[in-house]
Amino acid sequence: MSLQTQVMDKMKEAMKAKDTVALQALRAVKSAFLLAKTETGAQEELTKEQEIKIIQKQVKQRKDSAAIFLKQDRQDLADPELAEIAVLEQFLPEALSEEKIEEIVLSTIKKIGASGMQDMGKVMGIVSAELAGQADGKTISNLVKKNLV
Predict the structure, then answer these.
(1) How many C-beta neighbours within 10 Å does residue 24 have?
(2) pLDDT for residue 131 is more than 70
(3) Which of 94, 93, 85, 95 is nearest to 26 (CA)?
(4) CB-based contacts of 20, cutoff 8 Å, min separation 6
(5) Could you read off the pLDDT of 57-94 as tens digits, one per residue?
(6) pTM
(7) Phi/psi of residue 61, each to 5°?
(8) Among 88, 90, 100, 148, which has the minimal tally of Cβ within 10 Å of its Cβ?
């Protein structure tokens, strides 16, 4: 079952349960799916990878918003964002621990023989492709920087 169908099913459940927070998050994802489908040059159906990227982008937007709200002591605005994150994360694959990500980063550095920061792009490209959907770019970037110095 594709993520789009899962989102639609959860949306129906949220409507029946009158869960406005979940409904808002799921509608935003559905909208993002439709926008991606109707982009010029897009194929008929979205691939699983594209669907995951869209949901990750939605989660990242909410995390950024919640961080800004918390920085400004606006817990009342941050709470709905955090609740929406919880709803959206159920559609993402299980995230890897930082230790696992670091193992993959280190093995990639050894494999391609990266020696310094000039090789960061190569390492990031390989690791990001390998961990698609299982780790966010910021975490990967920080670990690559830490291990390439």
Answers:
(1) 14
(2) yes
(3) 85
(4) none
(5) 999 999 999 999 999 999 999 999 999 999 999 988 88
(6) 0.77
(7) -60, -45
(8) 90
